[in-house]
Task: inverse folding
């Protein structure tokens, strides 16, 4: 084994915010890399809550056996409000000192990195982040851990809806997750052949949806699927259904499906496991090499670092090329 002893003795790892498939693979990579470099890994439970409550346990290579294929997170997750208070931060810092942690790897999204940035600045404490969220809404990486699995889950579900929609000549409005981002809707919309995709980044108005539905009638389509990102500005899937009824009367038999938290679970895809492993190893190596206050991502197949400030302030750009393709192939 070609590992060199690191100057860091103890690295803590936590998952925070909404869980995402592949988080376990990332935890595993962090823990195994620590062991490889002679650092003791510590698991922090329930995200930042675990730091505040001192819910921290020493891990070893065996603690992460047989988890690479499991959804969820063995460390559990939480959206900690207390951590954003002075009292919460101070308590967390006391426990970091008590456990003699030298650095942290945090796995999560936007909120996770904001908390990490604040903590790292306040106590001059090294933290590196791994983007883990199904939303793919983090600047500085082409994909976040969990996105690929989530879109595959959506595609599988939408394919099934297509079957029944076609049998009954129905129009479905299907809401997918993504918070303020439309990546899940666009990717799964293209892959499942949706007739229309509505996303917050490009509000093209309700008239465009009407035109698109008119076109499907002219082409005598037997089913229509409209994928709606939860953050879309035209209203909820129920509002859209009402608007279509108001405009077209009984012309379409409409149904609504909200896919919900099914999108967050399940066995991580190969792509998510590989990405999580790559980011996990690089996060530990980054800390050992003295990096801090940064997120590790992969862009154009290369590992890249983005400071937390930029990763949290800048939004990743929606790919106009994908929208163009979605428009052409849904005709
Ligand atoms: O950030 C992941 C996500 O699943 C979003 O897509 C969604 O808006 C949100 O979390 C739901 O959060 P919760 O599980 O706390 O309801």
Result:
């Amino acid at each position: 084994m070609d590992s060199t002893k690191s100057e860091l003795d103890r690295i803590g790892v936590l998952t925070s915010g909404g869980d995402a498939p592949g988080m376990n693979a990332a935890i595993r990579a962090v823990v195994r890399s620590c062991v490889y470099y002679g650092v003791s890994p510590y698991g922090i439970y329930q995200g930042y809550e675990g730091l505040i409550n001192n819910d921290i346990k020493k891990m070893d290579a065996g603690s992460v056996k047989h988890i690479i294929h499991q959804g969820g997170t063995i460390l559990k997750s939480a959206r900690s409000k207390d951590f954003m208070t002075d009292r919460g931060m101070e308590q967390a810092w006391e426990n970091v000192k008590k456990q003699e942690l030298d650095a942290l790897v945090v796995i999560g999204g936007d909120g996770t990195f904001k908390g990490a940035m604040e903590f790292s600045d306040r106590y001059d404490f090294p933290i590196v982040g791994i983007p883990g969220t199904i939303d793919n809404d983090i600047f500085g990486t082409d994909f976040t851990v969990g996105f690929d699995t989530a879109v595959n889950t959506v595609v599988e579900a939408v394919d099934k809806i297509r079957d029944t929609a076609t049998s009954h000549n129905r129009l479905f409005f299907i809401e997918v997750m993504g918070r303020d981002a439309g990546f899940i809707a666009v990717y799964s919309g293209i892959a499942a052949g949706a007739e229309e995709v509505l996303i917050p980044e490009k509000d093209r108005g309700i008239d465009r949806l009407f035109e698109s539905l008119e076109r499907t009638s002219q082409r005598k389509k037997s089913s229509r699927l409209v994928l709606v990102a939860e953050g879309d500005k035209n209203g909820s899937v129920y509002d859209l259904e009402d608007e279509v009824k108001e405009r077209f009367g009984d012309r379409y038999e409409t149904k609504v499906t909200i896919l919900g938290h099914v999108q967050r679970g399940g066995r991580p895809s190969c792509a998510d496991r590989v990405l999580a492993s790559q980011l996990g190893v690089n996060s530990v190596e980054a800390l050992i090499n003295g990096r801090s206050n940064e997120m590790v991502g992969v862009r154009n197949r290369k590992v890249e670092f983005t400071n937390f400030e930029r990763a949290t302030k800048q939004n990743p750009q929606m790919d106009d090329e994908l929208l163009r393709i979605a428009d052409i192939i849904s005709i």
Observations:
- The longest helix spans residues 147-168.
- The pocket of 6-O-phosphono-beta-D-fructofuranose is lined by residues 18, 109, 133-135, 177-179, 230, 264 (CB under 6 Å).
- The mean pLDDT is 96.
